[in-house]
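Case 702 in the screening queue. Each case pairs one protein sequence with one candidate compound; here the compound is DGJ. For every case the pipeline is the same: read the inputs, emit a complex structure as C-alpha cells, and attach any notable structural observations.

Predict complex for case 702.
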Amino acid sequence: MPITYDESKKIWVLETNDTAYSFGIHQSGKIKHCYWGKKISRFDDYPDLKSYRENPWWDWNDEIPVRGGANQTEPCLQVVYADGVRDVTLNYQDYHIQDNLLSIHFTDEYYRLSLTSFYKVHESYDLMERSIQLENHSDLPITIVNFKSASFYLPASDVYTLTHLTGMWAHETRLTKEPITEGKKILESRVGRTSHFHNPFFAVDEKATEDHGNVWFGQLAWSGNWKIALNKKPYEQIQISLGLNEWDFEYSLQPSASLTSPVVLSGFSSNGFGEMSSRLHRFQIEQILPKSNAHQLRKVLYNSWEATAFNVNEENQKALADKAAEIGVEIFVVDDGWFGERSSDRSGLGDWHVNAQKFPRGLKPLIDYCKTKGMDFGLWIEPEMVNPDSQLYSQHPEWVLHFPNRPRTTGRNQLMLNLAREDVKAFVLDTVDHLLSENDIRFIKWDMNRPVFEAGWPEEANQQKMWFDYIENLYTIWDTLKTKHHDVIFESCAGGGGRVDIGMMRYADQFWTSDNTDPYDRQFIQEGFSLCYNPKVMMCWVTDWGGKNSYPMTYRFHAAMMGSMGIGADLAGYSKEDLQTAKELINQYKQIRNTVQNGRLYRLMSPSQTSFSINQYLSPDSTESVLICLKNPMPLSMFQVLRIKLKGLEEKSLYHISQTDQIFSGSFLMNHGLDLDFRQELDVKAKDANHFKSQLLIIKKK
Ligand code: DGJ
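Case 702 output:
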C-alpha cells in the first residue's frame, strides 16, 4: 500500500519504491508537513508532529497554507467572501484513501467553502501528483484571488542550490543554478503562455551531481500564467509553492461550482539529477503523452519554413518534397503562408482557407504528391491569432482580447483571440476539425507567436477568469481534436519553445524546442530541455542556422539526433554530395531512434561545464547504447583524447562497438572508460568548422 495513515502518530505516509512524503495532524488541529525524502526503512521511525512548537506570532509549514490567521508562508488559497472577509480558516474534516489516491478534506470554519487536497502516488515511478479542489456550498459567489496547487517544505540548510530553466526567444530552457538564500525567489509567467523566460519546473539539491546527492523537484501541468515561489526565512524550513499566478487573477466561484488547480508532479532523487530526469522522462512517456502515439517512434519530418518562408506554392513545395523524399524524410510539413492573404506576417491570420494564388488546386495535389513519395503530409496553423488585416477581424473585432478606450497592441502584427469566449472556442475547434476532416493531414504544428498584452474581456463581469478559462478551453480543444483525429501527430510551438510543459503534453505529442537551430547553441537549449522533458518530445532540426558551412554536416546532424530529428534546411541549395550525406545520416538516425526516443538518457558531459556535449542513450531492453559526442572549440584541442565512462551496462556482459569493431566488457566501459580520439592537425589556417567535431557510436551487448 503506497498510502498509510498511522492513527497512533496521526500521520499520513505516502511511499514510493524509493521515496516518502509525510504530513500529519498537529495538536492544534492543523495539518502540517513532516517529511519529504528517501523512504525510511523502518516505518515506525517516520516522525510525527509532537515536537513541532507552534509560535503564537507566526505559523509555518501548513500542508495547505491559506491567507488567514498567523500564516507567514506563501498561501495556496486567498479568497474574498461575499461580505468582504478576506481571511480563510481551514479546518481538517476527514480523509479518504482509494488505491494510490489520498484525499484530505477541509472546510472553512464559518463560510461554506470546502477544499480537498489530492495526492496521487506513483509508486514505481517514484513520483507524486498533487492538486487542490475548491467547492462553493454557499448561496453566494466566493472570489478566488490566489490559488496554488501545492506547498512543499525542506529542512533548513545553507547548502541548497536551486536549478531552474530560464531563457528568451531563441535561447529557451537554459540551465540556471543559484544558491538559495534568505528571501523570496519568484519564477513565473504573466504572458498567458508557459513562456520562454522561465519554465514551470524547479529542482533543489544538496550539492548533487548527475549521479549523486539529494534532489527535490517539481513541475506544474499548466500552460498559462503560473508562479513558483521559494521562500527562505532564518532558521525556518524552505517553502516552495507552485500554481496559478495570482497576478491579475480573480475567479468568481459561483454557488455549487468547483474549481480544480493544475496538477503538480513532484519527486525526490537520492541519486542526483540523472535519476530525476529519468523518472520524469519515463512517466511522461507512459503516463502523460497522448496514449495514441506515446509509444510510437517519431518520424523524421521536413519543414519548409527555413527554405521558403511565406513564399510557399504547389510548385516549390513539390520540388522540396522531391528532395526530402530522396533523403529519407517521412513527413513533409508546409509551415506558415499557405492560407488567406498571407504573404508576410502582416496579414491573413484568422482566414483559414487555402490561398488560391499559391495553391490554385487546393492542398490535395500536394498532399497526394507527398503520399506517392511515401511521406505523410503536415501543416502549420496558428488558430488562436488574428491579423487586423484579415477577413476574420473585420467580421469579429470583438473576439480579440482588448480593453475599451485602450490601444489594441499588436505583437508580430497580430492580435490574440479570446479563447475563453465560448464562440471563439467553437470557431477554433471547428476550423481545425474541418481542416483535418477535409484533408489527409497527419501532422499539425500549432503555433502561438505572441504574449497577451491588453487582457480585457469587456462583455464579461468576471474578466480576470480569462487567464484560467483560456487555457482550460485550449486543453478542451486539443483533447477533442486528439480524440477525433488520433492518428494526427500534434506539435506545440509558441514562437519556438514558449509553450513547453506537462499540461500541454497531455495533448501534444511533441514540442518545438526553439527557433534557434544552430547546432552549437542548441546543445545548451537541449541540455536544459532534457533535464525535465523527454528527448522524444524534443524536436531537433538540421537547418542552415549559423551558416551552412560553419559546422561539419555530421556535427549538425549529430546535434539533432539527441532528440526527435527533423530537417529544416533549404534542400534546394544542397549539392548531390550534401544530399547523399544527409540521406546516410538520416538512415543512421532511423537505426538509433528507438534507443534515443524510448531509452534512458545519461548526460555524460555537459556543454555548459565542458567543451563536450555527450549523451548516452540506453535502449529500453538495455541491449544497445548510443553514444552521441559533440566536441566544441577549446584551447589545445590537437591533444584531445577523451576518456568517457559509460553507465547502466552489465559489468559481466560483453559489448560490441559497431563503428570501431571493438569488444569490451561492461565493467571496462563503465570503470576504465572508452577513449574517444578528437585530435586534429594543428593548422592555423583551418576554418572554424574544424573545431567542431562529433562522433556517434553504437554499442551492442553481445
Ligand atoms: C514561429 C515558429 O517558431 C517558426 O518555427 C515558424 O513556424 C514561424 N513561427 C512561422 O510563422
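Case 702 observations:
- Residues 105 and 116 are 5 Å apart (CA to CA).
- Residues 305, 335-336, 380, 447, 449, 493, 495-496, 512, 515 surround DGJ (CB under 6 Å).
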